[in-house]
Amino acid sequence: MKAKPLMTEFSVKSTIISRYAFTTVSCRVLNRASEDQDVEFQMQIPGAAFITNFTMLIGDKVYQSEITEKEKKSRDRIKEKRNKTTDDNE
């Protein structure tokens, strides 16, 4: 039986300044298996919130994510829906 990853630490720190909440979430996961495996991390955030940074530290290596603007993403979804509607009508 494959050993499941174990969450060893979890913390949330929020600072509120001028109606804005700055929240840092830290999670440490231990891979107890002898081989690499994926770990899924889920978190609910308010609909009006947006992510400005997502960084992972694996071993001694830092992985910095690329954040896509919410506005651009929404426009892309609208275009996809329009294209799908157009394709469905053909």
Automatic annotation (TrEMBL):
Disordered: annotated segments: 69-90
SMART domains found in the cross-reference section: VIT
InterPro entries in UniProt: ITIH, VIT
Domain of life: Eukaryota
PROSITE patterns per the UniProt record, alphabetical: VIT (PS51468)
VIT domain segment(s): 1-90
PANTHER family in the record: INTER-ALPHA-TRYPSIN INHIBITOR HEAVY CHAIN FAMILY MEMBER, INTER-ALPHA-TRYPSIN INHIBITOR HEAVY CHAIN H5
Protein name: VIT domain-containing protein
Origin species: Neotoma lepida
